[in-house]
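Thread: "does anyone have the structure for this chain?"

Original post by V.I.:
We have the sequence but no experimental structure in hand. Need at least a predicted one for the grant figures.
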Amino acid sequence: MQAVEFSLIIPAYNEESVLNRFFEELEAGLNSWVHRPWEIIFVDDGSSDRTAEIILNKNAEDDRFKAVLLSRNFGQQPAVSTGLSYAQGRFVGIIDADLQDPIGVLRQMYEACREGRCNVAYGVRQKRQAPVVLDLSYKVFYRFMNRFSDHPWPVDAGDFCVLDRQTVNLLLQLPESSRIMRGLRSWIGLTQLAFPYRRPARAAGESKYDMLRLTRLALDSMVSFSSAPLQFAVFCGLLASLLCGFTTALFILNRFFPSFTLFGYSVGANPGVTTIVILVLLTSAFNFLCLGIMGQYLALVVREVKRRPQSIVREIVGDLQRNRVAFPTTRHESFFR
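Reply from O.Q.:
Generated one for you, tokens below.
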């Protein structure tokens, strides 16, 4: 049996409206430019519609279409990591199931890796068809991570990519439970190439990322890959200390030198609770902000210490074997036997 040349991982959550069309595009594309065995691994992230059933039917027709069915909805990032742990190809691609990432760009990225021009080829969204607020949120998030992450992220680069086997093995050996794939992909280094493209609107269905999910992803990314929030907390503490020291100095000067004024205003001219209330509220706000930032980092530490699996696999569809080098946080489907 020939070794698998190309594995394509597709996280799917309630995508029944696009799957049949997606099957056709994928099969036509891969048959035309992958000239050795390939496999497609769908990771059903606890869908409540017919997504899993449609994938099972496709596997019965063509055993190159395989699936990993999770026990519930764990989220896109755990689904992608789970798919990586089962991919056997020399090269591994990651693509969403919503038909927003062009198959033609996937081919360009695969050929770049196959020709040895890079270890990682990733897509960069030049323009996306999305609501204004959502599009602005994406732009702010990626630019923040590019500027303040401990290792800069490529701007507007999502999970759409192709990786060679060396990169996949390195990713699978990283021990953390909170895995943001685009951040880890950037962190490992190696040779990486960007492939700009325009991202169209969804072919059908609705985006599974609302503002709440995006906010959670942004917080997890910032805490996992950047110490900037902690540095900001230190800055807030220093600023609050300076402000309190400056205000205290003004009151002391006014106490011993009643004629002392600041911009024509005598600090002690109108004694009362207003100044005290403002200072207390300001200091409290800084304290709660810093506590919240530290709480996010503490929550990440607690998650890592628990060592819970990223996902629990309910069923394997097709001939799939878990990679030996995979991170020890994804449990096998034998729990359900």
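V.I.: this helps a lot. The chain has ten helices and nine strands.
O.Q.: and Residues 333-337 have pLDDT under 50 and may be disordered.
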